Records
---
Amino acid sequence: MTFLAAIGASVLSLLAGIGRVAIYALQALSHVFRPPFYGREFATALLNIGWLSLPVVGLTAIFTGGALALQIYAGGARFNAEAVVPQIVAIGMVRELGPVLVGLMIAARVTSSIAAEIATMKVTEQIDALVTLSTHPMKYLAVPRVLAGLITVPLLVGIGDVIGIFGGYAVGIGTLGFNPANYIKNTVDFLEPFDIISSLIKGAVFGFLATMMGCYFGVNSGRGAQGVGRATKSSVEAAAVLILAANFLLTGVFFSI
Amino acid sequence: MITLDNVHKSFGSNHVLRGVNLHVPRGSSMVIIGGSGTGKSVALKCVLGLVTPDSGQITVDGKPNDKGDRDAFLARFGMLFQGAALFDSLHVWENVAFRLLRGTLKRPRAEAREIAIEKLRRVGLKPDVADRFPAELSGGMQKRVGLARAIAADPEIIFFDEPTTGLDPIMSGVINDLIREIVVEMGATAMTITHDMSSVRAIADSVAMLHDGVIQWTGPVAEMDASGDPYLRQFITGSADGPIEAVR
């Protein structure tokens, strides 16, 4: 009975947490369309989330694309299918690895940063100060970051897709002996517009989840350094799990046969 | 002007405020004293609406603090936080002019900057501080910047939360004198919470002692030493012997 009660309490706690996050997300979205709007904070968020994430996204994508080409070539060689490297690298990067890896890198880099910054603001009373200065913390802190995540992460995914494919191309040409023109032709011919659209939609969803988790856990952090640390850790864990779960659901919706 | 009527507030099983009654007349400077953890900050935050009381009523000029236009209500207040609570990512002048750069009091950036530099000068800081970031300033300078931000929009009511905590005695004296000068010069109503008795004597017109969730004693600062209240006596003398338990 005690065991069942413990399971029940955990489930209820989980459901309550999901409810709180959902309410927070809906509140944030409702504030997107209501003034005042903080243009400078939005521009700063675009820079931090988008532009400054480019190096890590680019490096992740190029190494993943290269490794993917090597794996497909080695695996394909077992049944004489080495020639499919360009097609599989393209589809793998655009449909799955590009969005997921960019999403996870954003969770690591941006979600943690947002959660730590907002949690520190909370423990040092900066959020209370915002309120006394007639500034709504959700409008000033959450809305610019979530909006920037919605806009920049799809762009990062698109760039990551291209760089990943280029990583595969570089390995294919440099190491595996593919003909450059054929490699490009096979890549372009095989990809369909919906592959790219699905990739960008996934990017927008992952950007929303990553920034929302950072804001939510930051605003709800506990006291002191331990509270900031816990909020940061929890935000990254939640963002990563939600991104992977959302990816599974979206892949099912987009590509189920 | 500010009235707290039988205000209660608990956090879980911790009953912080157990029926606080307090009246702060317009233009006066009230200092709330009491030991650490007695609910002084909570009382202040209840007035601002940062914390919602469980029961009781708080009014400002006879109007409940939780009704009406929230922005207009908050625009009447300035607050100096214990740790200054400056925004790390903004320059000092942007911190001071924060209210003047957005919302109903918004002005052109150049004008807001001019006002910020004037307020910085008023609290004894040179204009070159304006373009620094808060992390580049000492604790005393951060308090001054926080004070400049609190007065930037010429508020009617100013709250000071532990204004001298963490400062050396000389800097504490400077901040106390500044607060007194500014409150008198602006004709503002001030509420200060502190356990620094030198601040009390420098800033207060009247004093209220919060203990065990209620106002234990209140009266003019001139009557504080002769009050005869054993709680207040123990707090003023800093003695371990008396009705207040030394270990909490």
---
Amino acid sequence: MREIGAEMERELVIIGGGPAGLAAAAAAVENGVAAEDILILEREPELGGILLQCIHNGFGIHRFGEELSGPEYAARFAKKVAELGIPSLLSTMVLTLHRMEDGRKEITAVSSAHGLIRLKARAVVLAMGCRERGRGALNIPGTRPAGIYTAGAAQKFVNIKGFMPGRKVVILGSGDIGLIMARRMTLEGAKVEVVAELMPYSGGLSRNIQQCLRDFDIPLLLSHTITQIHGKERVTGVTISQVDEKRRPILGTEQYFACDTVLLSCGLIPENELTRQAGIPLDPVTGGAVVGENRETEMPGVFAAGNVLHVHDLVDFVSAEAELAGAGAARWLAEGDHAGVKLAVRPQGVIRYVVPQTVSLPADEDVRLFFRVGEVVEKAAVIVECGEKVLYKGMRPKLLPGEMESVTLKAETLSGLDSGQLTVRLEKR
Amino acid sequence: MSETIRELTCIVCPIGCTLKVTMDDGKFVSVTGNTCPRGAKYAETEMTAPRRVLTSTVKVSGGHLPLCPVRTKGDIPKELLFEAMRAVNAVSIPAPVSIGQVVIEDLCGTGVPLIATRDIHSV
């Protein structure tokens, strides 16, 4: 297929060929969309997304009941997409997305192979993933030498390109990619001096604190941040200070660590430039679109799933979410808009956000709500209510900001509802 | 009797349960806090002879990428991780590579093979 400058038309276009895009595409076919009516657009030269550089294990436990590495997990979905015969355009970057007057969506994209590509689609799944928060967004004081990377950039150097970014490393932020890279660089012969985390708790999974830091005696300094980067051409060291409960550096707590490399693992931001440009409403907390239980955004026929919607800890949940979006898109293409009422789902108190942000009723399937807390909470009940009616109540021994939680609302619990809003809150024991 | 209680974070799966392990004179007695049987097994192994899965990369010649990701097909003794890394870094394999292909049959005498975790095409 070579359609330079040609107008292409598809029932469903999927923007992004990572785990979310692949699972959404497969689910769309399994729910009745013809494979040739779908097109996956991927900016990298191969399908698989960020999983290809996540060579560590731990993927697929929920999904496949086994511990796979990132590339193995991606390969299973890429294989499925290939077997289903779903076409994709690789090395293709989407530039614009907008809704046309007739309700179809117009996408422009570019690739070296095809030049400018104009695509019209009835439905779209947004699966662009997320990006890392870089130094520019963190306002770290000091000089601007070489040797400062996001953890994911270092991961690409080490795992894909075969270069070591440095030998003496300080990591700012305890997100999972930073923890994974602490272990990876240690195994490859680097010395990781310290991991500094601004918050009083880690942003990563507990197991990664154990197997990536404690296993190698790498210190984790909670409530600490870098207050100065030193070095002219290349970073020579950092000053790390303790912070108070308002995250302000405490004078007199400065410690100097010599290093030639600083890795930043300070949070991920859903990549929603296209979404914003299309005028699709975003949730200010997740940074992703506002969606319903089938992951349809507020723009009819546009769905979103995976890290573009909210940042996940586990790819298994990305795949499950993308399957909702793919199935939702298939159903929307067949049946059009959902007739019925839409209730808002609102987080309360220490619960920062809930996805989905709306639930359409009557529900014909169970609805799983995903949420995160803003602080560490021990022994609390998660309560979902609609007005006076308690829809769910369940105990959790411990809730951590770094770990996504969920509750499942049974379809029959939702059946009697037709107005009001759902609230999700915690009740401390 | 010299019973001691150690707290561990289970690494068997991403849930990361907090395990409380009771030991007596270096011998495993019991564990609480695990939510599956694999956690109990992990606690016992971790306190007596800890094991880890190793993931890394090996050099590839003539491939579309310079490296191929690999992992041990099963866990190996934790104290052998750095020795295993030396063996892994000494290997170079020719493209093409298929996912699941055995790269080293018996990594450092552990009896555990090292396998490729993706396809690499020849160029």
